[in-house]
Amino acid sequence: MAVSIILFIIIFCVVVVSHELGHFLVAKKNGIHVVEFFIGMGPSLFSFTRGDTKYSLKLFPIGGACVFEGEDGLEKEKGELSEGAFPNAPVFARIATVFAGPLFNFLVAFVAALILVWACGVTLPVVRSVSEGSGAEQAGLQEGDVICSMNGSSVHLQNQVYFFSIVNRGEAIRLVYERDGVRYHTTVNPQLNEAEGRYYMGITSGQFLDCSVPQTFQYAFYTMEYMVQSTFKSLSMLVRGQLTRQDVSGPVGIVKAVDDTYDEAKNYGVSSVVLSMINFVLLLSVNLGIINLLPLPALDGGRLVFLLVEAVRGKPVPPEKEGMVHLGGMMALMVLMVLVFFNDISKFFG
Prior knowledge:
Elements lengths: L1 H28 L4 E17 L2 E16 L22 H30 L1 E9 L4 H4 L7 E5 L2 E2 L3 H10 L5 E7 L2 E7 L2 E3 L4 E3 L2 E7 L3 H27 L11 H15 L4 H24 L6 H14 L5 H31 L1
Antiparallel strand pairs: 1-2, 3-10, 4-5, 4-6, 6-7, 8-9
Helix pairs in contact: 1-2, 1-6, 1-7, 2-5, 2-7, 2-8, 5-7, 6-7, 6-9
């Protein structure tokens, strides 16, 4: 477990530092005063000051922040702030600064995808067999067919077919497939496997592709696309109540997942461990980027909403009102983090 905790901290630092570094670099480029750049939460383990910015590493590996002068709108009146304060920067400079955090997460995720595709290749959505009497057989699917889209969403990877099958609740699937260079449209009605409690189309699929250099970039993009699609689908299922608290994990749950993955990957050598951890970087970077863009108070998306309103209106929302909204959002977020923490404890150590 000690090795897994170290691996988690490394992954955490890559994902969080890249996010906060995006804010930091764009803020500096636009002359915005960064008061503090810190990683982690809670009491500081150590800190130092360089220029007009304090850099800190805090005890608990659950987040971080790039604090700008005057960003909360609660501590001072705008007239008392320095020229480099966040509210004094042009609105589009502030929009770029806030958006840069999630953007850097997506850039790191794309680099991780490039490494994984280059090292491991990809698995294409090619049908290898069709179960007799299954919905897929009734829909006319045959061995060698290439699945191109499912319910209007483009499919480029076997993982997309697998994920779509996992989350299907028995709904008919509109499917486009290619056979001998010709595309066909059909509808598959998944059948319930009562023993497993899930629906199956009735196919096995997957064909390995060792990518060329151009294909590496192409399929890295498709890998990112799959991660974004699966994240949005998971969030949608969570909101609709189709996922339970057992399906949600925080830092403790991620450590357990890293530990399980490490135990399995170490049997295949160091390279397998490294690639497995890079896959975690990809997954968590995409998740952090998307979640931060949600239009919720205290998140980057919530701040972007206020900035876009300002850009349209030509004047900002009163800073004390915006500050109170974000403060309320931050308090709610902290309560949620505590609940998720105890949920992880109950799942894995209860």
